[in-house]
Write a structure and sequence with these properties.
The protein is of the alpha+beta class and about 90 residues long. It has two helices and three strands; from the N terminus they run H-H-E-E-E.
Length: about 90
């Protein structure tokens, strides 16, 4: 029985070390346009009232504004929407 426990403990350490290497580090972006809470007043005016615009940011992947929703279990990034439910996105250059 002791041999099985030792083998299990030996396998736990490499598994944890491997999983730690898979963590995604936050990008070090100095671009203030993408900073959290740095949204134009026009975007704040369009946003539905039940969203936390203080955590909103423009995501370059899709050109839309997203905010952090603090749920009962986790914090989720959700698209910032108008009162009609439309996502708020930045105008794309033509």
């Amino acid at each position: 029985m002791q041999s099985i426990m030792q083998k299990r403990n030996v396998m736990v350490l490499p598994t944890l070390m491997l999983a730690a290497g898979c963590a995604i580090s936050p990008s070090d972006s100095s671009d203030t346009a993408n900073a959290i809470g740095n949204v134009p007043e026009s975007v704040v005016a369009m946003a539905a009232p039940d969203q936390d615009v203080s955590t909103a940011r423009l995501r370059p992947e899709d050109g839309c504004y997203w905010y952090e929703h603090n749920g009962p279990v986790e914090v989720t990034l959700l698209p910032l929407r108008t009162a009609n439910g439309n996502p708020i996105c930045a105008a794309r250059p033509t």
